[in-house]
Specification:
One of its GO terms (molecular function) is chorismate mutase activity. Pathway: Metabolic intermediate biosynthesis; prephenate biosynthesis; prephenate from chorismate: step 1/1. This protein has a single domain, classed as Chorismate Mutase Domain, subunit A (Up-down Bundle). Helix content is about 75%, strand content about 0%. The chain contains 7 helices and no strands.
Length: about 170
């Protein structure tokens, strides 16, 4: 009984620890409306393989510096990129049906600076969290509650969370 109470306390304290990471992931995704709006106004495609490659390379390099295994971080970064693009496409679809008035997106270069800062913060949080213990499927509901951006589907959250569970510290 005593052992199960200790394990429950450790699990719940770590589960509470996923909240800062989930908040950062959600905050990063909140910029996708500006990205989609800027791209729509400037007739730019959602798909930007050159930018995606820069984001992935930068994240893998930063992950390595932080003591994370870059090969296990890569699927999580890709999941973030896919979720971001899905959100952008959904905004575009919404605007086709009903254009949004009275709103202007922020300049893309400024938004990308904020996204880069948040991406680094996400990796730093991941490194801190993993040094305290591994993520488990028990944190799923906490992660899903916090990551709740418009146009983000449950399947997007599941891909993000599954990739998160696979991240490991470097050996």
């Amino acid at each position: 009984m005593f052992v199960s109470l200790i394990l429950a306390a450790q699990t719940s304290s770590f589960a509470a620890g996923i909240t800062p990471l989930a908040e950062k992931v959600s905050h990063r995704l909140s910029y996708m409306k500006d990205v989609a709006g800027y791209k729509a106004q400037n007739h730019l495609p959602i798909e930007d393989p050159v930018q995606e490659a820069k984001v992935l390379d930068s994240a893998k390099s930063e992950a390595e510096k932080l003591g994370l295994d870059p090969t296990t971080v890569e699927p999580f970064i890709i999941a973030q990129i896919k979720a971001a693009k899905a959100v952008e496409y959904r905004y575009l679809a919404d605007w086709l049906a009903q254009p949004e008035t009275g709103w202007q997106p922020r300049p893309l270069d400024k938004v990308r600076q904020d996204i880069a800062r948040l991406s680094k913060e996400i990796l730093e949080q991941l490194a801190r969290d993993l040094k305290s213990g591994r993520f488990t499927s028990d944190e799923r509901s906490s992660f899903f509650k916090v990551v709740h951006e418009p146009n983000l589907k449950e399947s997007d959250k599941q891909q993000l969370f599954s990739a998160l569970l696979a991240i490991r510290l470097a050996k």
